[in-house]
Amino acid sequence: MRTELICFSLLGIAALLLDAGLASQSLPLFWLVLPLGIKISLDAMQKRAAKNS
Q1: What whole-number distance in Å separates Cα of residue 44 and Cα of residue 37?
Q2: Cα(23)–Cα(1) distance, rounded to whole angstroms?
Q3: What pLDDT does residue 23 have?
Q4: Which of 4, 14, 21, 50 meets the CB 3.0–4.6 Å disulfide criterion with 31?
């Protein structure tokens, strides 16, 4: 649940920046890639924790 909140909040911020009239070129790519990277890393950490216990 925590992972989804982080991902959706970052995507929401990116959508608000686009909706505020910023050109798509001014929106950094990491705002779109960062949630995916966070989700993948948190999932990998959870799998490692479950594997070790």
Answers
A1: 11
A2: 32
A3: 65
A4: 14
Pick from 36, 39, 40, 16: nearest CA to 27? 16
For 14, the token pair is 């990116």
| Rounded-to-integer distance, Cα 26 and Cα 8, Å | 20
pLDDT tens, position by position, 5-25: 777 887 787 777 777 776 666
The CB-side HSE value for 41 (13 A sphere, CA atoms) comes to: 8
Asked if 42 and 3 count as a contact pair (C-beta separation under 8 A), the reply is yes
Q: What CA–CA distances, in Å, run from 39 to 4, 7, 9, 30?
A: 8, 7, 12, 14
Task: Work out the average pLDDT over 32-48.
Answer: 82
